[in-house]
Write a structure and sequence with these properties.
single chain; 5% strand; mainly alpha; Four Helix Bundle (Hemerythrin (Met), subunit A); 4 helices; elongated; binds fe (ii) ion
Length: 154
């Protein structure tokens, strides 16, 4: 019998082509996000702390890069997007505290919540940013994006 008992069966979170935004750097970061969350979902209890720490390193860089790109490009829909990143990082702090108390089920629920959260965030908020950055570079018209609302700016 395995000495390391899992609290739940491993879940799987795979990259899907419809997560792609057409912005190479963001897509590379998002592939890494999916890999980190997948590793978190699959980790045995004894490996959860390491997987969560790896996710944290990724998430802080991932969100900081997007936040900086929004601020530096004066992106019109930055507020709600930055707020959503910050909410994930606040949750992460709480999950870290829960894991310190040995509550591995909280980490597993967080991993699943991330897998559920990402597709819509990428489809709406990150796609909006990717289009803005691409169109800005190419001199096109921006598209402003907020949750569940798409408004053409031009
Ligand atoms: Fe992102
Ligand atoms: Fe984002």
């Amino acid at each position: 019998m395995n000495a390391t008992r899992n609290t739940t069966p491993a879940e799987i979170f795979d990259w899907r082509d419809d997560y792609a935004l057409g912005h190479a750097a963001m897509d590379e970061t998002h592939r890494e996000f999916v890999a980190c969350v997948d590793a978190l979902l699959r980790a045995e209890d004894a490996a959860l702390a390491l997987a969560l720490a790896a996710f944290e390193v990724h998430a802080r860089r991932h969100f900081a890069e997007e936040d900086l790109a929004m601020q530096q490009s004066a992106y019109g829909s930055a507020g709600c997007h930055i707020d959503e990143h910050a909410a994930i990082l606040r949750s992460l702090d709480e999950v870290n505290a829960s894991l310190q108390q040995g509550h591995v089920h909280v980490v597993r629920a967080f991993g699943q919540a991330l897998a559920d959260w990402f597709p819509e965030h990428a489809r709406v908020m990150d796609m909006g940013l990717a289009r803005w950055l691409t169109q800005r570079r190419l001199g096109g018209s921006p598209v402003l994006i907020c949750p569940r609302a798409l408004v053409a700016a031009a």
